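Sat 14:20. Reprocessing the chain from the morning session after the first attempt stalled halfway. Input below, unchanged.
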Amino acid sequence: MKKFEVIDISGDVGMKAFGATVEEAFINEAMGMYSLITDIESIKAEKSISISVEGNSFEGLLVSWLNELIFQFDAYGFVGRRIDIQSLTPNPQSPSLKAIISGEEFDTERHERKLLIKAATYHKLRIEKTGDVWEIDVIFDI
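Finished this time. C-alpha coordinates:
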Protein backbone atom coordinates (compact mmCIF):
# COMPACT_ATOMS: atom_id res chain seq x y z
CA MET A 1 0.00 0.00 0.00
CA LYS A 2 1.31 3.44 -0.90
CA LYS A 3 1.64 5.86 1.99
CA PHE A 4 0.53 9.11 0.34
CA GLU A 5 -0.06 10.90 -2.96
CA VAL A 6 -0.43 14.52 -4.03
CA ILE A 7 -3.92 15.73 -4.96
CA ASP A 8 -3.91 18.26 -7.79
CA ILE A 9 -5.80 21.36 -6.58
CA SER A 10 -5.80 24.67 -8.43
CA GLY A 11 -4.01 27.35 -6.36
CA ASP A 12 -3.29 25.10 -3.37
CA VAL A 13 -1.95 21.61 -2.83
CA GLY A 14 -3.64 18.52 -1.46
CA MET A 15 -2.38 15.30 0.07
CA LYS A 16 -4.11 11.94 0.28
CA ALA A 17 -2.69 9.55 2.87
CA PHE A 18 -3.40 5.90 3.57
CA GLY A 19 -2.93 3.63 6.55
CA ALA A 20 -3.92 0.26 7.96
CA THR A 21 -4.71 2.14 11.20
CA VAL A 22 -5.87 5.70 11.76
CA GLU A 23 -2.54 6.37 13.52
CA GLU A 24 -0.62 5.19 10.45
CA ALA A 25 -2.80 7.41 8.22
CA PHE A 26 -2.10 10.45 10.49
CA ILE A 27 1.65 9.69 10.30
CA ASN A 28 1.54 9.25 6.52
CA GLU A 29 -0.40 12.50 6.09
CA ALA A 30 2.28 14.33 8.11
CA MET A 31 5.11 12.69 6.16
CA GLY A 32 3.35 13.54 2.91
CA MET A 33 3.14 17.16 4.07
CA TYR A 34 6.87 17.15 4.91
CA SER A 35 7.57 15.78 1.40
CA LEU A 36 5.90 18.89 -0.01
CA ILE A 37 8.32 21.06 2.00
CA THR A 38 11.56 19.20 1.20
CA ASP A 39 13.05 15.86 0.19
CA ILE A 40 12.40 13.89 3.39
CA GLU A 41 15.08 11.34 2.46
CA SER A 42 17.68 14.06 3.14
CA ILE A 43 16.42 14.70 6.69
CA LYS A 44 18.34 13.10 9.54
CA ALA A 45 16.63 11.97 12.76
CA GLU A 46 19.10 13.91 14.97
CA LYS A 47 16.70 15.52 17.43
CA SER A 48 13.31 14.58 18.88
CA ILE A 49 10.47 16.83 19.95
CA SER A 50 7.21 16.02 21.73
CA ILE A 51 3.95 17.22 20.26
CA SER A 52 0.63 17.24 22.08
CA VAL A 53 -2.53 18.56 20.41
CA GLU A 54 -6.26 18.54 21.00
CA GLY A 55 -9.21 19.26 18.77
CA ASN A 56 -12.90 19.98 19.01
CA SER A 57 -13.61 17.10 16.59
CA PHE A 58 -11.66 14.27 15.00
CA GLU A 59 -11.20 16.39 11.87
CA GLY A 60 -10.19 19.33 14.07
CA LEU A 61 -7.58 17.12 15.73
CA LEU A 62 -6.05 16.31 12.33
CA VAL A 63 -5.91 20.00 11.35
CA SER A 64 -4.42 20.93 14.76
CA TRP A 65 -1.82 18.14 14.37
CA LEU A 66 -0.69 19.24 10.92
CA ASN A 67 -0.76 22.94 11.81
CA GLU A 68 1.41 22.25 14.89
CA LEU A 69 3.97 20.55 12.63
CA ILE A 70 3.81 23.55 10.27
CA PHE A 71 4.33 25.87 13.26
CA GLN A 72 7.39 23.85 14.37
CA PHE A 73 8.82 24.27 10.88
CA ASP A 74 7.96 27.98 10.58
CA ALA A 75 9.11 28.96 14.08
CA TYR A 76 12.08 26.65 14.61
CA GLY A 77 12.95 25.24 11.18
CA PHE A 78 12.23 21.74 12.48
CA VAL A 79 11.29 19.13 9.90
CA GLY A 80 10.48 15.53 10.78
CA ARG A 81 11.93 12.31 9.41
CA ARG A 82 10.22 9.81 11.71
CA ILE A 83 6.98 10.03 13.70
CA ASP A 84 5.92 7.86 16.62
CA ILE A 85 2.36 8.45 17.81
CA GLN A 86 2.28 7.72 21.55
CA SER A 87 -1.50 8.07 21.84
CA LEU A 88 -4.39 9.05 19.64
CA THR A 89 -7.74 9.39 21.38
CA PRO A 90 -10.61 9.89 18.90
CA ASN A 91 -13.09 10.70 21.70
CA PRO A 92 -15.68 13.03 20.06
CA GLN A 93 -15.78 15.34 23.10
CA SER A 94 -12.02 15.85 23.44
CA PRO A 95 -9.88 14.14 20.80
CA SER A 96 -6.16 14.30 21.50
CA LEU A 97 -2.85 13.16 20.07
CA LYS A 98 0.63 12.83 21.54
CA ALA A 99 3.64 12.07 19.37
CA ILE A 100 7.42 12.13 19.21
CA ILE A 101 8.83 13.62 16.01
CA SER A 102 12.45 12.85 15.13
CA GLY A 103 14.15 15.09 12.61
CA GLU A 104 16.40 18.11 12.35
CA GLU A 105 16.48 21.80 11.64
CA PHE A 106 16.12 22.72 7.98
CA ASP A 107 19.47 23.63 6.45
CA THR A 108 19.26 25.58 3.17
CA GLU A 109 22.68 24.27 2.15
CA ARG A 110 21.72 20.60 2.54
CA HIS A 111 17.95 20.53 2.08
CA GLU A 112 15.96 21.30 -1.04
CA ARG A 113 13.27 23.94 -0.49
CA LYS A 114 10.00 23.00 -2.18
CA LEU A 115 6.66 24.54 -1.16
CA LEU A 116 5.98 27.04 1.59
CA ILE A 117 2.93 25.61 3.36
CA LYS A 118 0.92 28.13 5.37
CA ALA A 119 -1.72 25.88 6.92
CA ALA A 120 -3.78 22.71 6.78
CA THR A 121 -7.40 23.63 6.01
CA TYR A 122 -10.87 22.18 6.56
CA HIS A 123 -11.64 22.56 2.84
CA LYS A 124 -12.61 19.12 1.46
CA LEU A 125 -11.10 17.50 4.59
CA ARG A 126 -11.88 13.79 4.76
CA ILE A 127 -11.03 11.02 7.23
CA GLU A 128 -12.65 7.76 6.24
CA LYS A 129 -12.18 4.03 6.57
CA THR A 130 -12.72 2.31 3.23
CA GLY A 131 -12.61 -1.44 3.67
CA ASP A 132 -9.42 -2.17 5.61
CA VAL A 133 -7.73 1.13 4.74
CA TRP A 134 -7.96 4.53 6.40
CA GLU A 135 -7.85 7.42 3.92
CA ILE A 136 -7.23 11.07 4.74
CA ASP A 137 -7.56 13.99 2.32
CA VAL A 138 -6.20 17.40 3.33
CA ILE A 139 -5.87 20.62 1.35
CA PHE A 140 -2.96 22.87 2.36
CA ASP A 141 -2.93 26.63 1.91
CA ILE A 142 0.31 27.63 0.15
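The helical segments are 22-37, 58-76.
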